[in-house]
Amino acid sequence: MPVHAEQWAWAVGFYPCMEPGSQRSGIAVTFEAAREAFEATWTEMRPTIPDDAFAEWRHDRDWRAEMAAKRARGEKLASEVAGTTILCVCGTVFDSRNPTESYPHRGHIDAAQAAGKVSW
Fold first, then answer.
1. Considering only CA atoms, which of 12, 16, 8, 33 is closest in space to residue 24?
2. How confident is the model over 28-70, as pLDDT tens digits?
3. Which backbone phi and psi does 12 adopt, to 5 degrees?
């Protein structure tokens, strides 16, 4: 950014509850001016955000932190270990994430879908 241009940008938005693109933003010459504009805009917007939106945001934040901590510890997420077994139309149970197990059953499943016997 050129040195002569306004250097401080600010933005106010809140998810959930605000539609994408409905946030407000601006630029200012000084940090103090940017902070004042941000504070004024937040003061105006805050009453329009329901309290349950803050609770939803905190829940999402905590869930994401928990998932990141599990990954950092090398743990698999529940979605990576549960729900990956499938009962093929031939009667065999297999792990859908294991190519060696799943490839032989793709033909069975495709044929059953084409015949209208199953829908996935």
1. 12
2. 989 999 999 999 999 999 998 999 999 999 999 998 999 899 8
3. -130, 125
Residues forming beta bridges with residue 75, ordered by sequence position? none
Q: Is the pLDDT of residue 118 over 70?
A: no
CA atoms within 13 A on the CB side of 46: 6
**Contact (Cβ atoms closer than 8 angstroms) between residue 66 and residue 56:** no
> Considering only CA atoms, which of 78, 17, 3 is closest in space to residue 45?
17
Q: Compute the distance between CA of residue 17 and CA of residue 60 in angstroms, rounded to an integer.
A: 13
For residue 30, the 8-state DSSP code is S
pTM: 0.52
The residues pairing with 97 across neighbouring beta strands, listed in sequence order, are none
